């Protein structure tokens, strides 16, 4: 979840008074950092994944599955190895928003060898086993995007109760005890976002229309302690949620790539942007909220609303008086502008940015595109500030910059090198939902990394106007988007022919056409990846692993296999206890999670989700001979 500064959090009133201070010094810190690092060259491809997990506690007598609030205890032990010998660990573990969540990454980033694709899954498996060893009987680690009964009555172990009058969330449904208690950042963000907004966050997701859902679906919120504000904020026929935990309490899969220099990082940032909605639709895994079946398949709009700190003025509901800007999106949303020269002409959405900051950046020799990107990030206030960090050395520190940067939770993140490190310019790919098995997560990770290689080596151009990417984000979240939606995509991605008619540069394709190709019209991303691989020397095991991953992606795209969301829906709809009322009871939830656990443990096959062949040849380490052979062949070409 980005920067974790130790210390004492300031109140919202104090933080608000220091907003200009944080912005002013954050910008200076960025300028200093940029001057030092703009010409940094020669970094090699490195990359790594982040997987978020939930702790689930089963009770086989009462047939319940709850979120187990033991992340602090588990993390303490998981971090011991790293504390003793940080350079020689196979995994790194970090806290996340939920008191039931942990985040794991590989101990070191992977590099440019194709053989690295063969260790990703083994490392994910290692992480799962490592954390699982620390669990109690009947406690299970799951890579689940959303817990189906999150915020429904009695969803935590031990039991907790929401406090609608006090605390960080003031939620009718989500208790503060479910927020990670081991670091003050999470509760502070929750409180400050709510206080900045001037009211609780409001998330309304359409309910799935099944035959026994009342024609007017409207909940009684008064009995839950509502003072009237929730009834006003909730929409008819929607699942209403009122806390940051509903979004930030979801798990996801992220990827970070290091580029050889800032230019390449800007290119990757742009080229991966049109892929965000495509990969979101392909990885869709979150159809349930608060114990109900919803009519969407992804968490994106939930998490976006769950941290929407914009005031009524900023949202355009009142004339501007206290605030400076109308702001069209939450601080958690898809990106608003491209960063490369090639992307410039596709920046068709008016960008809100701070003029003074923009000018200051230009005055310091930062170009228009990067300046407007930073000035856009800096329209936001700090929503978490620690007293120890208020005064900083702007030549050395970057905390104020990171403060704003790390709370702009967008589909892509442009990551400058940290001060005094060997790390280069990086970009982070953030849209994907996490899948239940390591096999699927490794497939998504390896496919995305391969795409970056193909984009850079073949100089592909995937750019379409930002407004079209925004439209695709909306479509990607719809129920069964992979099967029923079309997505704006560039017609010709292999040659950079300029067309006079911008309209004809892009068209609408299905996900199947984008991934697998359309005869004579569009080559398809997988065929391009395969032609790239055909020109590479790759050892037999790695080749086999990559092909299994690619098959999974192809079959998900074609609809031959179900998306995680589609499979989850089907399981609930077919459950004997399901009453066609869109309700996920404790028992349905228990049976579903048990089944997921048995699939992940390989006790039960699930060919409709995973296909027939799920065992890859993944290994813990790259055999020395393979590494050597690959290095030689890379050197000779
Ligand atoms: P954040 O939560 O801020 O996105 P994390 O530290 O949790 O960042 O995850 C960063 C990811 O980047 C990890 O997968 C890690 O392996 C990877 N990584 C670390 N160093 C580099 C590097 N130099 N280049 C690319 N990726 C890196
Ligand atoms: Mg995370
Ligand atoms: Mg992280
Ligand atoms: Mg998260
Ligand atoms: Mg991340």
TrEMBL record:
Keywords, A to Z, come to: ATP-binding, Glutathione biosynthesis, Ligase, Nucleotide-binding
Q: What is this protein called?
A: Glutamate--cysteine ligase
The record ties this protein, via Pfam families, to: GCS
Q: Which InterPro entries match?
A: GCS, Gln_synth/guanido_kin_cat_dom
Q: What is its EC number?
A: 6.3.2.2
The reactions it catalyses are:
L-cysteine + L-glutamate + ATP = gamma-L-glutamyl-L-cysteine + ADP + phosphate + H(+)
Keyword ATP-binding assigned to the entry: answer is yes
Q: Please give an example of a GO cellular component term from this record.
A: glutamate-cysteine ligase complex
Top-level taxon = Eukaryota
The lineage, from the top, is:
Eukaryota, Metazoa, Ecdysozoa, Arthropoda, Hexapoda
| Pathway(s) this gene product operates in, as recorded in its UniProt entry | Sulfur metabolism; glutathione biosynthesis; glutathione from L-cysteine and L-glutamate: step 1/2
Q: Which family does it belong to?
A: Belongs to the glutamate--cysteine ligase type 3 family.
- Enzyme group, top EC level? ligase
Q: Which organism is it from?
A: Lasius platythorax
An annotated GO BP: glutathione biosynthetic process
For this chain, one GO molecular function annotation is: ATP binding
């Amino acid at each position: 979840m980005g920067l974790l500064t130790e210390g004492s959090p300031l109140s919202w009133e104090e933080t608000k008074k220091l907003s200009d201070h944080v912005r002013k010094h954050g910008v200076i810190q960025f300028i200093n950092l940029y001057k030092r690092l703009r010409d940094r060259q020669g970094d090699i491809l490195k990359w790594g994944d982040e997987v978020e997990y939930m702790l689930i506690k089963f009770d086989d007598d009462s047939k319940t599955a709850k979120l187990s609030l033991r992340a602090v205890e588990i993390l303490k032990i998981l971090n011991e190895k790293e504390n003793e010998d940080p350079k020689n660990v196979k995994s790194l573990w970090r806290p996340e928003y939920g008191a039931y969540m942990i985040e794991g990454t590989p101990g070191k980033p992977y590099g440019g060898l194709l053989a690295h694709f063969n260790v990703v899954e083994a490392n994910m498996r290692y992480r799962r086993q490592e954390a699982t060893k620390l669990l109690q009987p009947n406690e299970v680690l799951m890579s689940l995007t959303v817990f189906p009964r999150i915020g429904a009555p009695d969803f935590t172990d031990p039991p907790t109760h929401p406090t609608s009058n006090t605390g960080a969330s003031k939620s009718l449904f989500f208790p503060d005890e479910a927020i990670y208690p081991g670091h003050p950042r999470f509760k502070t963000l929750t409180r400050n976002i709510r206080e900045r907004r001037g009211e609780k966050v409001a998330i309304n997701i359409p309910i799935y229309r099944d035959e026994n859902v009342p024609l007017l679906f409207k909940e009684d919120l008064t009995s839950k302690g509502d003072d009237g504000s929730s009834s006003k904020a909730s929409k008819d026929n929607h699942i209403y949620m009122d806390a940051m935990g509903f979004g930030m309490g979801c798990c996801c899969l992220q990827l970070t790539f290091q580029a050889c220099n800032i230019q390449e990082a800007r290119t990757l940032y742009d080229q991966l942007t049109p892929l965000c909605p495509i990969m979101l639709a392909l990885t869709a895994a979150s159809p349930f909220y608060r114990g109900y079946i919803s009519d969407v398949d992804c968490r994106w709009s939930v998490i976006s609303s769950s941290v929407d700190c914009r005031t009524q003025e900023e949202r355009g509901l009142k004339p501007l008086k206290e605030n400076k800007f109308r702001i069209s999106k939450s601080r958690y949303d898809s990106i608003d502008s491209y960063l490369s020269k090639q992307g410039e002409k596709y920046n068709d959405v008016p960008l809100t940015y701070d003029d003074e900051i923009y000018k200051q950046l230009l005055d310091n020799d930062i170009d228009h595109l990067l300046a407007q990107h930073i000035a856009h990030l800096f329209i936001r206030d700090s929503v978490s500030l620690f007293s120890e960090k208020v005064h900083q050395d702007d030549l050395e520190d970057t905390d104020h910059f990171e403060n704003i940067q790390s709370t702009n939770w967008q589909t892509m993140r442009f990551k400058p090198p940290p001060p005094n490190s060997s790390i280069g310019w990086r970009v982070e790919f953030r849209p994907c939902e996490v899948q239940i098995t390591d096999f699927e997560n490794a497939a998504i990770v390896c496919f995305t990394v391969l795409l970056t290689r193909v984009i850079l080596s073949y100089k592909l151009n995937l750019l379409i106007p930002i407004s079209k990417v925004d439209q695709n984000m909306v479509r990607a979240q719809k129920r069964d988007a992979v099967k029923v939606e079309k997505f704006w995509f560039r017609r010709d991605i292999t040659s950079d022919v300029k067309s006079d008619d911008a309209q004809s540069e892009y068209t609408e394709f299905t996900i199947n056409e984008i991934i697998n190709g359309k005869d004579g019209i569009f080559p398809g991303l997988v065929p391009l990846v395969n032609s790239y691989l055909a020109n590479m020397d790759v050892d037999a095991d790695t080749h086999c692993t990559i092909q299994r991953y690619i098959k999974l992606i192809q079959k998900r795209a074609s609809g031959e296999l179900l998306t995680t969301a589609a499979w989850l829906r089907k399981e609930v709809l077919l459950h004997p206890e399901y009453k066609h009322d869109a309700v996920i009871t404790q028992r349905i939830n228990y049976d579903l999670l048990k089944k997921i656990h048995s699939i992940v443990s390989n006790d039960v096959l699930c060919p409709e989700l995973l296909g027939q062949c799920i065992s890859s040849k993944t290994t813990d380490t790259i055999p020395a001979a393979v590494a050597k052979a690959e290095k030689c062949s890379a050197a000779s070409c």
